[in-house]
Amino acid sequence: MTGPNPVPDRYDEPDQLRDQLRRLLCHRAAIALGVALGLLGGAALAFVRTPVYTSASEVLVRSTADPYGTVTVAADNQISMGTEQQIAAGAAVVARAARTLGRPAGDAAALGRHLRVGHRPKSQVLRFEFTDSSPRRAARAADAFAEAYLADRKVRNEAAAQRAARSVEQQIQAVQQDKKQKNAGEAVQRALQTELDTLHRRMVEIKSRDTDGGYVVRHAAVPTRPAGPGRPALLALGGASGLALGILLAWLCSALDTRVRSAGDVRAALRSPVLGLLPAGPGDEPDGGTGPLKVGHRGGDRAESHRALAYRLHRTGPSGGPGGILVVAPRRDAATEEIAVNLAAALTECGRQVLLVDADSDTPPVTARLPLLPDDARPSGQPAPPEGSRLVDAGTAGHFACRTTGDGTVHRLPAAASQERTTVVLARPVLEHADALSAAQRVDGVLLVAGLGTTRREDLRRAAELIDCSGGTLLGAVLDTDRRPDRLRSALAALRSRTVRRPATTPPDTPVVTLPAQDETLTAARR
């Protein structure tokens, strides 16, 4: 008995990494802002901060142990470098260095804050580092502290030698008094004389002893470059920090962003397939008077994407093809009109008789932006279009009829003449008007238009729920990747919708009937 087939993960690890990088790159402005802030901070530190200079001098510390003593001690054990380091940074040395530099006694504490004393392990060399805004003052102060420490150490050695000399002098006096006693024997006198000679030799050794505490092995040199990182290093550090800040800001924007950024977001929000993906257009391309119509007049990737969408819808159901399709967006989107018009032209190219119904009364009629045929120029052999409609010249794709409802009501639409006719309905946004929900009950399927980077996932979910609750069938979504935010374009569209309004009543010579209920032409199942 075999076990269940493993369910493949939606993404493997490389796909997840690419998806995350793609989401971060969608917020390039945040990354650029972080880099700019980092560079500004680095430039501020590089050009505003006062440069400081550090100079160092080194002193070899000599042992104070008696080199003529009977017990020899290793040099490492004769000197405590930790103690000497504390003494070198003490108040006595700082005050002596301040007098050497000609500074008042009150500045000694401030002078000591710029001093740093250190030593290497297993070494008898003290290093004096002094930091100042002037390179010459830094070198002079480092040498002054080294000389002050040596002078202080010499004073301490001389004081120790004087104490030792006084002790030996007291011992000599005591031996001389014992020697003056007349009752002492000859052997005692010889012993006292020997001890007295030893003490005299000891006194000579103490007085001839070198009390120097050490000597300077390296004098401070005038520094030529400021201490710490230079301007190029600060700018590079600021740029790296800014890049990290920009990535963090982009990640926060990506985590808080509710707009769709990929086809996977649309599928996850709608639980329906993405039937078409419109690539980005070349920009302000001259249309040659065809307006949003591209199929049959202009080539390019977008025209081929519209054809692929039509072929997919045409093959979705039986050989008869789709009977009615509603093209609608959750909110106002300029791509809805383009998709509806080109879908009608592409279905005409597939051999269908297409009727495009413009039920969006908030914008100027779509017929004003399409190449229409004159009323007396209908091709011979082609069935007459429905009354009240006009023929649109789709170029190499053929001709299709276009009809405007006038008052925007979608429950009163021209009826289909035969089963070979497909009706494409262009309605107002689902979340702004209820007309689209009324039309969704009377068509075979609904195409939901979404804009990459502009449509919100919550709007897609709400639109899908409303379409399902109204009894409509959601065929899938069409994702337009060229719907970048353009405030100027949105403002012009809003101004045009206010200045140009459709008539509020239906023309009297247009017969209208109620659109039949939904048939079983398409096989797409409802959610």
UniProtKB/TrEMBL annotation:
Keywords per UniProt: Membrane, Transmembrane, Transmembrane helix
Signal peptide: none
Gene3D superfamilies for this protein: P-loop containing nucleotide triphosphate hydrolases
InterPro entries the record matches: Bact_polysacc_biosynth/exp, P-loop_NTPase
Transmembrane spans: 29-48
Region Disordered: start-end pairs: 369-390, 499-527
Domain of life: Bacteria
This protein's name: Lipopolysaccharide biosynthesis protein
Native source species: Streptomyces thermoviolaceus subsp. thermoviolaceus
